Amino acid sequence: MAVPSLFSRRFFRKPFTLFFYSSFSTTAATSSPPPIHVALTESVGRAVFATRPIGSGDLIHTATPAVCHPSSTRAACYSCLAALPHSQPHTVTFCSQLCRQRSKGYFDVEMKANWVAFDDYCRTHGLKYPLLVKRLACMVISGDASSDTLDILQPANLIPETVLEMEEEFVLLRNAFTKALIADEHIAFLTKQWYINVLARIRINAFRIELAGGLYEDLLASAVASVEAEAAVGNAVYILPSFYNHDCDPNAHIIWINNADAKLKALRDIDEGEELRICYIDASLDHDARRELLLRGFGFQCNCSRCLHGD
Ligand SMILES: C[S@@+](CC[C@H](N)C(=O)[O-])C[C@H]1O[C@@H](n2cnc3c(N)ncnc32)[C@H](O)[C@@H]1O
Questions:
Q1: Which residue has a Cα nearest atom 15 of ligand 1?
Q2: What is the CA(207)–ligand 1 centre distance, in A?
Q3: Which amino acid residue places its CA nearest to atom 20 of ligand 1?
Q4: Where is each SET domain found (predicted)?
Q5: Atom 9, ligand 1: which residue's CA is nearest?
Q6: Distance, CA 13 to ligand 1 centroid (Å)?
């Protein structure tokens, strides 16, 4: 496949060492690292590049969420977001003992506090990302995560109005923990600045998770949910997948089969040194709609080949 000039290696500046082994895994069959590296570019910050040719349809790597949270409209495992067609949305349910066990740390912290005010605020304002911050805060308090887990990700540029809204959410979150008598030293990290920094990163890097596979009942529930405009089982933030830039004609995509564990797959043959890009939005939208969505939702003017050609 011809490599568009946009992807040429002249954009390479400083290759990173692979620092994210904990956030992805390769296929069980091989223990070799995935065929990618992250490097700085001159035009779009960091980017993911192929270190060898990758075949169309190949699994590039998998990734587990740094943090995830189920949606309020689809019943899903509170830990891994597997669809649970026989459960009710809004109820805390786990798909297995393993998931219950894995969540024990942050879930025990969450159960100590009263979330009515915070959850009501999120629901009435149609906010889902603060729920990811709440979960991350519980993970930090329980020792399941570090408070700087998401610091490596690019933050959104926030307007003062957005910061003011975030301050309201922060007060509700902090109050829930203080009223639950969580010791001061355990919530010392939970400052207004921490909340805003985390949310600024989540805004750009969160993925909305729609499962591609599963049981017949899951597909049926998903079809019904699609009609009702919410097919997602939840939202999640990953580390390595967050370094993939956007292209309106991508050469890779991210998919979810049974739960929030993501698979990054090649959509066509990829050359060594080519940048790997995924599509953040619906690529079937017209040029103006895509530009508007990318600018409003992600704060950037797309430099992909399709957009540069006005397609
Ligand atoms: C999820 S991050 C991707 C990784 C990012 N480049 C970094 O250094 O962390 C999304 C950000 O990358 C940049 N970006 C991604 N795709 C782009 C594109 N097609 N055109 C211009 N900027 C892009 C924008 O700054 C965007 O807000």
A1: 245
A2: 14
A3: 302
A4: 34-281
A5: 154
A6: 16
Q: Give the pTM.
A: 0.88
From residue 307, how far is each of 121, 246, 281, 302 by CA, in Å? Answer: 38, 11, 13, 6
Tokens read off for 262: 């993501």
Q: Is the ipTM of this complex over 0.85?
A: yes
Instruction: Name all domains of the chain by residue range, CATH numbers in brackets.
Output: 5-64+238-308 (2.170.270.10), 73-207 (no CATH)
The string of pLDDT tens digits covering residues 90-104 is 789 999 999 999 999
Q: Using one digit for the tens of pLDDT, what is the confidence trace for 276-291?
A: 999 999 999 999 999 9
Q: Is residue 245 scored above 70 in pLDDT?
A: yes
Strand partners, 70: 234
Q: Is 238 in the pocket of ligand 1 (CB under 6 A)?
A: no
